[in-house]
Protein backbone atom coordinates (compact mmCIF):
# COMPACT_ATOMS: atom_id res chain seq x y z
CA UNK A 1 0.00 0.00 0.00
CA UNK A 2 1.34 3.44 -0.87
CA UNK A 3 1.49 6.44 1.42
CA UNK A 4 -1.55 7.95 -0.31
CA UNK A 5 -3.73 4.90 0.29
CA UNK A 6 -5.78 4.10 3.32
CA UNK A 7 -7.02 0.61 4.09
CA UNK A 8 -10.29 0.72 6.03
CA UNK A 9 -11.54 -2.37 7.80
CA UNK A 10 -13.32 -1.00 10.87
CA UNK A 11 -16.11 1.50 11.23
CA UNK A 12 -15.07 4.80 12.88
CA UNK A 13 -17.32 7.36 14.59
CA UNK A 14 -19.46 8.75 11.73
CA UNK A 15 -20.25 12.38 10.96
CA UNK A 16 -23.67 13.36 9.63
CA UNK A 17 -22.62 16.21 7.31
CA UNK A 18 -21.81 14.77 3.88
CA UNK A 19 -19.60 17.73 2.91
CA UNK A 20 -16.34 16.62 1.35
CA UNK A 21 -13.28 18.66 0.37
CA UNK A 22 -13.74 20.74 -2.81
CA UNK A 23 -10.57 19.18 -4.23
CA UNK A 24 -12.54 15.95 -4.73
CA UNK A 25 -14.54 16.60 -7.90
CA UNK A 26 -15.39 13.05 -8.86
CA UNK A 27 -15.23 9.65 -7.21
CA UNK A 28 -14.36 6.49 -9.14
CA UNK A 29 -15.26 3.11 -7.65
CA UNK A 30 -13.26 0.06 -8.68
CA UNK A 31 -13.39 -3.56 -7.65
CA UNK A 32 -14.32 -7.01 -8.83
CA UNK A 33 -17.90 -8.00 -9.66
CA UNK A 34 -19.94 -8.33 -6.51
CA UNK A 35 -17.92 -5.74 -4.60
CA UNK A 36 -20.90 -3.37 -4.58
CA UNK A 37 -19.72 -0.70 -7.01
CA UNK A 38 -23.13 -0.05 -8.54
CA UNK A 39 -25.16 -0.32 -5.35
CA UNK A 40 -22.71 1.62 -3.20
CA UNK A 41 -22.11 4.12 -6.00
CA UNK A 42 -25.80 4.96 -6.34
CA UNK A 43 -26.19 5.31 -2.56
CA UNK A 44 -23.04 7.42 -2.23
CA UNK A 45 -24.11 9.73 -5.06
CA UNK A 46 -27.52 10.15 -3.44
CA UNK A 47 -25.93 10.94 -0.08
CA UNK A 48 -23.60 13.54 -1.63
CA UNK A 49 -26.27 14.98 -3.92
CA UNK A 50 -24.12 14.03 -6.91
CA UNK A 51 -24.81 12.26 -10.19
CA UNK A 52 -24.25 8.50 -10.37
CA UNK A 53 -22.89 6.96 -13.55
CA UNK A 54 -22.34 3.25 -14.12
CA UNK A 55 -19.71 3.06 -16.89
CA UNK A 56 -21.14 -0.12 -18.44
CA UNK A 57 -24.63 1.45 -18.58
CA UNK A 58 -23.05 4.60 -20.08
CA UNK A 59 -21.38 2.46 -22.78
CA UNK A 60 -24.68 0.73 -23.52
CA UNK A 61 -26.51 4.05 -23.83
CA UNK A 62 -23.84 5.50 -26.12
CA UNK A 63 -23.57 2.39 -28.33
CA UNK A 64 -27.17 1.21 -28.36
CA UNK A 65 -26.02 -2.35 -27.52
CA UNK A 66 -25.62 -4.33 -24.32
CA UNK A 67 -22.12 -5.04 -23.03
CA UNK A 68 -22.78 -8.73 -23.61
CA UNK A 69 -23.75 -8.08 -27.27
CA UNK A 70 -20.75 -5.80 -27.80
CA UNK A 71 -18.41 -8.57 -26.62
CA UNK A 72 -20.23 -11.25 -28.63
CA UNK A 73 -20.60 -9.28 -31.88
CA UNK A 74 -17.50 -7.10 -31.95
CA UNK A 75 -15.02 -8.67 -29.50
CA UNK A 76 -13.24 -7.40 -26.43
CA UNK A 77 -10.82 -5.01 -28.23
CA UNK A 78 -13.77 -3.09 -29.71
CA UNK A 79 -15.50 -2.99 -26.33
CA UNK A 80 -12.34 -1.69 -24.63
CA UNK A 81 -12.12 1.18 -27.16
CA UNK A 82 -15.73 2.13 -26.41
CA UNK A 83 -14.99 1.81 -22.70
CA UNK A 84 -12.00 4.18 -22.85
CA UNK A 85 -14.03 6.71 -24.83
CA UNK A 86 -16.94 6.52 -22.37
CA UNK A 87 -14.52 6.83 -19.44
CA UNK A 88 -12.90 9.95 -20.90
CA UNK A 89 -16.37 11.43 -21.36
CA UNK A 90 -17.42 10.55 -17.80
CA UNK A 91 -14.22 11.95 -16.26
CA UNK A 92 -15.06 15.30 -17.84
CA UNK A 93 -17.98 15.62 -15.42
CA UNK A 94 -17.90 17.09 -11.92
CA UNK A 95 -19.81 15.97 -8.86
CA UNK A 96 -20.18 12.45 -10.17
CA UNK A 97 -19.72 9.02 -8.62
CA UNK A 98 -18.53 6.69 -11.37
CA UNK A 99 -18.72 2.90 -11.10
CA UNK A 100 -16.22 1.15 -13.39
CA UNK A 101 -16.66 -2.26 -14.94
CA UNK A 102 -14.42 -4.82 -13.24
CA UNK A 103 -12.03 -5.05 -16.20
CA UNK A 104 -11.67 -1.32 -16.92
CA UNK A 105 -8.58 -0.82 -14.70
CA UNK A 106 -6.70 -3.56 -16.57
CA UNK A 107 -6.37 -1.23 -19.56
CA UNK A 108 -3.39 1.13 -19.40
CA UNK A 109 -5.34 3.85 -21.24
CA UNK A 110 -8.05 3.75 -18.59
CA UNK A 111 -5.59 3.83 -15.70
CA UNK A 112 -3.82 6.84 -17.21
CA UNK A 113 -7.12 8.65 -17.79
CA UNK A 114 -8.08 8.16 -14.15
CA UNK A 115 -4.64 8.99 -12.72
CA UNK A 116 -4.19 12.11 -14.84
CA UNK A 117 -7.62 13.68 -14.30
CA UNK A 118 -7.27 16.22 -11.47
CA UNK A 119 -9.83 15.99 -8.68
CA UNK A 120 -10.44 12.27 -9.22
CA UNK A 121 -10.58 10.20 -6.04
CA UNK A 122 -10.48 6.44 -6.69
CA UNK A 123 -11.84 3.97 -4.15
CA UNK A 124 -11.27 0.21 -4.33
CA UNK A 125 -14.15 -1.81 -2.87
CA UNK A 126 -12.45 -5.04 -1.85
CA UNK A 127 -13.52 -8.37 -0.38
CA UNK A 128 -12.16 -11.92 -0.51
CA UNK A 129 -13.05 -13.87 -3.66
CA UNK A 130 -15.39 -16.37 -1.92
CA UNK A 131 -17.48 -13.48 -0.55
CA UNK A 132 -17.70 -11.81 -3.97
CA UNK A 133 -18.51 -15.10 -5.69
CA UNK A 134 -21.32 -15.83 -3.22
CA UNK A 135 -22.77 -12.36 -3.81
CA UNK A 136 -22.82 -12.99 -7.58
CA UNK A 137 -23.75 -16.66 -7.79
CA UNK A 138 -27.39 -15.87 -8.61
CA UNK A 139 -26.20 -13.69 -11.51
CA UNK A 140 -24.35 -16.51 -13.30
CA UNK A 141 -26.59 -16.22 -16.37
CA UNK A 142 -25.94 -12.48 -16.67
CA UNK A 143 -22.25 -12.93 -15.89
CA UNK A 144 -20.94 -15.86 -17.96
CA UNK A 145 -17.48 -15.71 -16.34
CA UNK A 146 -19.12 -17.02 -13.16
CA UNK A 147 -19.99 -20.31 -14.87
CA UNK A 148 -16.41 -21.41 -14.15
CA UNK A 149 -15.33 -20.41 -10.62
CA UNK A 150 -11.66 -21.17 -11.36
CA UNK A 151 -11.61 -18.71 -14.29
CA UNK A 152 -13.44 -16.10 -12.20
CA UNK A 153 -10.94 -16.48 -9.35
CA UNK A 154 -7.97 -16.23 -11.74
CA UNK A 155 -9.44 -13.00 -13.13
CA UNK A 156 -9.97 -11.71 -9.59
CA UNK A 157 -6.28 -12.23 -8.75
CA UNK A 158 -5.16 -10.79 -12.10
CA UNK A 159 -7.11 -7.56 -11.51
CA UNK A 160 -6.21 -6.99 -7.84
CA UNK A 161 -2.90 -5.18 -8.51
CA UNK A 162 -4.60 -2.75 -10.90
CA UNK A 163 -7.35 -1.95 -8.40
CA UNK A 164 -4.77 -1.38 -5.65
CA UNK A 165 -2.53 0.76 -7.84
CA UNK A 166 -5.35 3.17 -8.70
CA UNK A 167 -6.82 3.39 -5.21
CA UNK A 168 -6.50 6.38 -2.92
CA UNK A 169 -8.69 4.46 -0.49
CA UNK A 170 -9.27 0.72 -0.04
CA UNK A 171 -12.39 -0.47 1.78
CA UNK A 172 -12.95 -4.08 2.79
CA UNK A 173 -16.69 -4.57 2.18
CA UNK A 174 -16.82 -8.25 3.22
CA UNK A 175 -18.68 -7.62 6.49
CA UNK A 176 -20.39 -4.35 5.55
CA UNK A 177 -23.82 -3.68 4.11
CA UNK A 178 -23.98 -1.17 1.23
CA UNK A 179 -25.25 1.54 3.62
CA UNK A 180 -22.48 0.82 6.13
CA UNK A 181 -19.97 1.05 3.29
CA UNK A 182 -21.38 4.44 2.27
CA UNK A 183 -21.21 5.69 5.87
CA UNK A 184 -17.58 4.64 6.01
CA UNK A 185 -16.78 6.27 2.67
CA UNK A 186 -18.46 9.55 3.59
CA UNK A 187 -16.56 9.66 6.87
CA UNK A 188 -13.27 8.98 5.11
CA UNK A 189 -13.95 11.58 2.42
CA UNK A 190 -14.89 14.19 5.03
CA UNK A 191 -11.55 13.75 6.77
CA UNK A 192 -9.45 14.06 3.57
CA UNK A 193 -7.37 17.18 3.24
UniProtKB/TrEMBL annotation:
GO molecular function, one term: shikimate kinase activity
Positions with a binding annotation for Mg(2+): 38
Pfam families assigned: SKI
One of the protein's GO biological processes: amino acid biosynthetic process
CDD domains: SK
InterPro entries recorded: P-loop_NTPase, Shikimate/glucono_kinase, Shikimate_kinase/TSH1
Protein name (record): Shikimate kinase
Organism: Granulicella rosea
Family: Belongs to the shikimate kinase family.
Domain of life: Bacteria
Binding site for ATP: 34-39, 143
Main location: cytoplasm
Catalysis performed (reactions): shikimate + ATP = 3-phosphoshikimate + ADP + H(+)
Quaternary structure note: Monomer.
UniProt xrefs under HAMAP family: Shikimate_kinase
Cofactor binding mode and count: Binds 1 Mg(2+) ion per subunit.
Residues binding substrate: 56, 80, 102, 159
